[in-house]
Amino acid sequence: MLVHHHQIRVVTHLNNVFSLKNIVSPKYFTQLSDSCVLWFEASNQYIILSKYMKAILDLYLDSNNKFEFYKHLKDSLNLPEEKSKAFYYELTEFLKSANSFSTTSHLDTSSIRLIKNTDFSETYCFGNSIITVYYDSLAIKNLIHPLFAHTNVAQDHLTSALFAIFKKDDALYLFKNGNYIGHYAKTDYHLLQGQFALQLINTLYDKNESDWIATFHASTVTNGNEAIMIIGDSGNGKSTLSAVLMAHGYDVLADDFTPLLAEDRKLYRFPSGISVKKGAFNVLRPFFVDFDQFPLYASTSKKVNIKYIPPIKSFGQGISHVPCQKIVYVKYDPTVASTLQQVNTEKILETLIPESWLSPLASNAELFLEWIKELKCFELNYSDNTIAVSQFKRLFHS
Length: 398
Known about the structure:
By secondary structure, this protein is an alpha+beta fold. It is built from eleven helices and 23 strands. The chain has three domains: 18-98, no CATH class; 109-206, no CATH class; 212-396, Rossmann fold. The strands form six sheets. The protein has a six-stranded mixed β-sheet, covered by helices on one side. Strand 4 (120-126) and strand 5 form a beta hairpin. Helix 2 crosses helix 3 (66-77) and helix 3 (66-77) packs across helix 4. The radius of gyration is 24 Å and the shape is globular. It starts with 20 loop residues before the first helix and ends with a helix.
């Protein structure tokens, strides 16, 4: 997951709410079936409120002071003053948090230099793009290389972009074409992985960070005309199901990192392998004749062995981007009957938003809110892959 840090600024005094209305109000919001999604520009936070709580928030923002707010609640909802005081305090703290910038430390990047000595480097081919990455050590190489090992080529190619990743003083430093991109605590290696992935898609699609609405922690499959995004908690089987769907003829557009472009609001291909944990090996082995030849790696986040299944279509071969209006939350449970049911978008957002990087730009936030209004969301509990595949086939034809 890619995370951005913002400057700190906190609204600390809200007795006169009306004078601060334009500061503390959400920049954008959109109405869903049972809730409202608010976006606050300062913190880049998306907040889901019930219709009831949104109505109370509107009364808060429309009041000139706390006493007028109490009166509005009494007249509209017949709430006693003690309850109104509690709402006032909770909303005040809520808006303070939602309008707070994150802290960030200023760093003089002029003193940061690329370290060029390394015995670990790899070159990857993504369609017409050749990418070379210099790794400082084998441990650092194992953070990135396994995802793209299936695209490995000899290092005698002319490169489109040169990346370098080095460790210094317990921090991991990322460079692109000799330019400093960022540095991350060694324990926050997932931030490095997310930033590398973002810089990679910028290179492959000739884009900038500002061009992307979001990168989702989701797997995505397509039939060539539309995409279905698959989300779920870690270990719930989204990557395994993606691999099974690929074995049944569907194209895996992305695994774990799915980018959404602002220009056309379509999902774009990300060329990593499909990561599957040891517990799924026996399930997947019958679908892939060369499964046992796929290299075995140790997971960087958990003490478990994993393999990366190469996508059936290489980058540049399959379609590069497709629209998506369906998201499925999946959960594998061998003890239950397989069921698929439509759910409210709010339920999906509770998993999708915290696990994703969402652009801090107001224009992209507005596009994201427009995009989610068009979504159809589902929940799939499954114990049988055959039934799961048939459910996806039905979704693609609905």
